[in-house]
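User: For my dataset I need records formatted as: sequence, then C-alpha cells, nothing else. Please produce one.
Assistant:
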Amino acid sequence: MTCPAISPSPIHRINGKNIKPCSGTCTTYNIIYGLHCTLCDKYYVGRSVRRLADRVSEHRQKYYQVVKDPDSVFKNNIREEDDSYSPGLHLVDEHAATELNTFSFAYKVFLIDVCSPQVLEVREYKYIHELKTLKPFGINTVSPFSLPILDI
C-alpha cells in the first residue's frame, strides 16, 4: 500500500524541467524529496536522513505553528534561517491558509533521489539549483551552503 501523501504522478514538470520521481515509500530514508503545492504548482526541495513520513510530519508541525502563532515566526527570524518553515509559510503567505488541514491536501510529496547521507546536502543544492525552487520561482527560501542560485 502506498502512502496517500505520495504523488502518483509519473512526471513532475518543475520550472521547465521534467523530473521522474524515484521509487520509495513513506518509510524510505536518506532522501531528496519534493513537495508540490497543488494550489499554485510551485515546488519545494528538501533532504532528510530520516523517513519521508517523519520529515513531512515535521513540515506539517511547522505549518501548524505558523497558523497558531504567526508572531513567533517573525520574532525569532525563522523566515531567514530555517527552510523547514518554508512550505508552511508559503501556504499562509501565498494562499492565506488558516485551516490546519490545508497542509495535507495542498501538498503532494515525491522522492527525487535516494543517496548516501554524505552527499545529501550537495545533492539537495544541485536539485534546488537545477529546478530553480528558490523563491520567487519555487517555495525554498534558504539556499544550502548560503550560495546563490546561478542562472546558467
